[in-house]
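_Per-residue structure_
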Amino acid sequence: MRPILSLLCGVGLLLLGSGLVNTLVSVRASALGYASGLVGALTSAYFVGFFAGTFLAPPLIRRIGHIRAFAFYSACCTCTVLLHTLGDGAWLWLLARLLLGLALVGMYTVIESWLNAQADPAHRGQVFATYMVVNLGALTLAQQLLRLEGQHAFFAFVLVALLISSASLPVLLTRQSQPQLPPAPRLQLRRLFAAAPTSGAGALLSGLAMGAFWGLMPAYLTGRGLDAAAVGTTMSAAILGGALLQWPIGRLSDRRDRRLVLAIVCLVAAVAALLSPLASGHRGAQLALAFVYGGMAFAIYPIVVAHLVDHLPPEDLLAASGSALLLTGLGSALGPLAAGALMSAVGPEALFGWFALLLGALAAYAAHRYRAFRRQRPDAPHFLPMLRTSHASLDLIGEPHEAADASARTLATPASAPHDRP
């Protein structure tokens, strides 16, 4: 682990900043009186930038190198975060969110491609597990930094800028050689749906749900009278549920048909979403439901990718996983817009109806596929807890140089956000 300690330190600081700013923007926008539709548009702008940056970052990194690219993107992130302090106009904030998504995915691409090059193939599992622990731990802790939000008008935004800027320091100080960024795999949406339709539907619907969760859940909680500290605690409970429940759910999916497990997970998440408005006056019940919902919702994308791995040959995994990443990114961009418009038209509680509708539909579809199209799958376990980030993470835990060996265990699955990372 010693060669990647500097990169992991950078990841931790980066996620502390990015995890805080995405919740902070939703809370602050709600406090400024932005309508739910506009709050959703802010989140959609971020994911549009994140999605576009996925394709724009690799050529830049190849041209100027990892270290200079990381410094460039770090400066861009700092500038765009501080743009929020120059005014509270909607167009300014929309521009800042778009640019922040572009810059953050560049930083993720640098870190993940570097980790991929530094990790010894024999220890990639340990590297990936440590990377996920740092990710989820930093995201959970970042929500608690909302407690500092009221100390000064712009204190939290300045803190985010400091954290993201400092993330570049351990990366710039590393003595490790810069890696070569491999070409991105060609996307194959048709191949994805032909081989594993449940994976395609799950990637899209989970993106629609999780994009709305990251962008509108803090605004909903703020509108219900919770202060910044309480909002941070609720979001932390959901992320902690995702961190703790992914592994047992994944072990279950390795032993049973993944479509059945996916149906159960989505059904439980939908029920938790429907019960959440009823628990608004009971703090303990609210946190418990947030924990359950997060634990189920964060497990959807890893199950989807593991199901994809079950039914594709090794040479198609990177391209198909990239297609799943594409679908989730599209869903994350569209979900906040649709859910925000629904909340404006129907009421704030419509957010939970949005979650229940999407996840209930996915549960029904997965159950239908399980009953109608049962088939044999490999006995080897393929589930790993993950977050969705950049294309560079597609082969972080795989063994690309041994993919041609049919006997090798191939785990070429992407690390997701906010996903499911915010």
In short: DSSP finds 13 helices and no strands in the chain. Residues 399-419 have pLDDT under 50 and may be disordered. Residues 314-346 form the longest helix (33 residues). Residues 332 and 382 are 25 Å apart (CA to CA).
